[in-house]
Specification:
Elements: H1 3-18, E1 22-26, H2 31-42, H3 50-53, H4 56-59, H5 62-65, E2 71-78, E3 96-97, H6 106-124, E4 130-133, H7 141-147, E5 152-153, E6 159-160, E7 168-175, H8 194-198, E8 204-206, E9 209-210, H9 216-222, H10 229-235, E10 238-240, H11 244-247, H12 272-276, H13 280-286, H14 296-311, H15 317-323, H16 329-343, H17 347-354, H18 361-379
Helix pairs in contact: 1-6, 14-16, 15-16, 16-18
Length: 380
């Protein structure tokens, strides 16, 4: 065995000791991946994720990200902590969160492990330079991971590993030394289209192509403003992300749970009415160190209001009426919609009374849309 192979093997073994359950090495991005990325941008499928369209040069060239890069260590970390099937949609009084978001923010959890592995790499290659990425930088992570043999990019655009599934994080360490490269993964989706068919908003517009603007994960996390009317019913009780396309993927029938306590749910209730009552202080306390803090309170309660509108639960009317006086216009706007869904035309006098002095356009627009809807029905 060559010295490079020996060093790579020692690094891999140490990575597994740290808790990474997937390790691979690649050296370059394929021109096909770069072309596909640019075509995706040209269709504006990134929506408001401006960071995806920034630094196109860097995303297209590893050397532009890290001068002198010779190898990319790609890592996989299992976050699956509980079984999940599509029955969650029937629990309409409870908000659904993606499994990865049930406890601590994975960026913080994984950083220390990466630093330990980085230290090991520098021990093996004295004087080498490295750069860590945990879903935080301008690189095309999934094509790199596929090239490094960690899995293939499925039709839902998540990475899938044979006999393991897709419930995991991927991350990287770029290094300026040559390591033994891995065999790339082959696509094994076959003729399956379960992920395409299950998507509530039809965001997978073609196999391997995701229109983020329609994706529930985008709508509940990345989108900072008003959720388009056409998608609100389809959101159901999703309040942070969406696992639907992963739940139905046949490869996830092989998924094995992690025993990493960092990812276990610290609070599994997520009752919608309870969440709707969170003030700023309570939100910060409950979601401290959680990925959910990324949406801020106004984003989460926007999503919760939509979910309550879809719940059919009249017990939510009181908390929603209380929320009409919330200091966040984004929340008030979606509460208007939710009350319209729960009360129908009976919501109009409540809105007129409570929002007499409303001066925010996004809220007034929601009220006007509701009035127009019932005026049209009256005309008929």
């Amino acid at each position: 065995m060559s010295l490079i192979n020996e060093k790579t093997l020692r690094i891999e073994n140490f990575a597994k000791e740290l808790g990474f359950d997937g390790f691979g090495v690649t050296r370059e991005l394929s021109s096909k991946s770069i072309k596909k990325y640019k075509e995706w941008l040209s269709l504006n499928y990134q929506g408001e994720m401006s960071y995806m369209s920034r630094n196109v040069e860097k995303r297209s060239s590893l050397n532009a990200v890290f001068a002198g890069v010779q190898s990319v260590v790609c890592l996989r970390t299992n976050y699956l902590t509980e079984d999940k099937d599509m029955n969650f949609i029937n629990k309409k009084d409870r908000g659904d969160l993606s499994l990865y978001a049930l406890n601590e923010d994975y960026h913080e959890v994984l950083m220390q492990r990466h630093k330990e592995l980085e230290k090991k790499i520098k021990e093996e290659f004295d004087g080498c330079q490295t750069k860590i990425y945990i879903d935080t930088g301008p690189i095309l992570e999934k094509p790199l991971a596929q090239s490094a043999g960690l899995g293939w990019i499925g039709k839902h655009t998540n990475l899938i590993t044979e006999h393991i599934g897709s419930y995991y994080f991927i991350s990287e360490i770029l290094v300026d030394v040559i390591l033994k490269v891995s065999e790339p993964s082959l696509d094994k989706c076959g003729t399956c289209r379960s992920c395409i068919d299950i998507c509530p908003t039809k965001a997978i517009v073609a196999p391997y192509i995701l229109d983020s603007r329609r994706c529930i994960s985008y709508l509940t996390i990345e989108l900072k403003g008003v959720i388009p009317l056409e998608f609100r019913k389809a959101l159901g009780n999703h309040i942070y992300g969406c696992d639907d396309c992963q739940i139905v993927c046949p490869w996830n029938s092989f998924a094995v749970k992690t025993d990493d306590q960092s990812f276990f749910a610290r609070d599994g209730s997520f009752q919608l009415i309870e969440l709707m009552r969170l003030d700023d202080v309570a939100f910060r306390k409950r979601f401290k160190k959680s990925p959910v803090k990324r949406t801020k309170r106004r984003g989460l309660l926007r999503n919760v209001a939509v979910a309550l509108g879809n719940s059919g639960n009249l017990s939510a009317v009181g908390p929603l009426i209380d929320a009409l006086t919330d200091h966040e216009p984004l929340i008030r706007a979606h509460v208007v919609w939710a009350l319209g869904e729960l009360l129908g035309k009976k919501a109009l006098p409540i809105l007129d009374k409570t929002l007499t002095h409303e001066n925010e356009d996004i809220v007034k627009n929601e009220v006007e849309l509701l009035k127009q809807y019932y005026n049209k029905r009256k005309d008929k």
